[in-house]
Amino acid sequence: MTPATFGATEPLNLVSSRRRRDVESMRNASFAKFVTNGAMFGATGELSFFIRTRELSGLIIFMTDSKSNNISVGINEGVLVVHTTLNGKNSSVTINATVSDGLWHFVEIQGNMSHVDNLSLVTEPIADKDINLTVTYIGGLDDFPLYPDANLIRTPFRGCLQDTRLNNKLFDFGMNNGSLISIERYMLVAQGGLGAGCKGMNVCRLAPCGEGGYCKDLWNKYECDCKPRYGGADCALYGCSLVNLCPHNTTCLDVGENYECKC
Predict the structure, then answer these.
(1) pLDDT tens figures, 65-78
(2) DSSP string spanning 76-137?
(3) Domain 4-196 falls in which CATH fold?
């Protein structure tokens, strides 16, 4: 099943400060909206998806009855958290498994049990009753102010989601092939900022390692391999500026590929 990339249309913004860098998390307008009339989730039900991201915060899914009750799943400080607003009362359940490492992870969430990859995690109950869902958003909302009282992470998700299902019914992003026609699915009714596949941003296109290093693309993250006599943040230091090899009360001067000490 083709992954959907969220935040794919946003510009790249790199700020040099460390040798190994993450792409800066930015606000984006990515979202996918589905009608989910008849779906139930909360005390019972099952939500599952594959996820790949390096972002430490973001809204993965928001499920609502279009009134005052809703359940959302997001990332907070790199781990999954489930927020619930039920009859005006807010609650949160943290799933202690890191998913913001740029690798694919499988997540399955039930009433008081979650599975992340091969790890089973018992949690507090998500809700004491099911919510009769009418609308579900994935990756973000088209208009966050429409839900001012909802208990949710208000940063859109950036990364890739694949095979997202609620009660074993597939959320169809419109990117799947014809072989999946027999699978029961929720149909996409609105979307913004989505992309097919799971290509990362071209993090090396702005030459963050400069002339002193080689940029290695690590999917939405880069690492600089410095040339000889180069080092420091993003290989920006060279020779005498990298390390002073001269005795006290002398000045180190770069001379070609060597150095000399001046009294």
Answers:
(1) 988 899 999 999 99
(2) ETTEEEEEEEETTEEEEEEEEEE--SSS-EEEEE-SSEEEETTEEEE---S-SS-EEEEEEE
(3) Jelly Rolls (2.60.120)
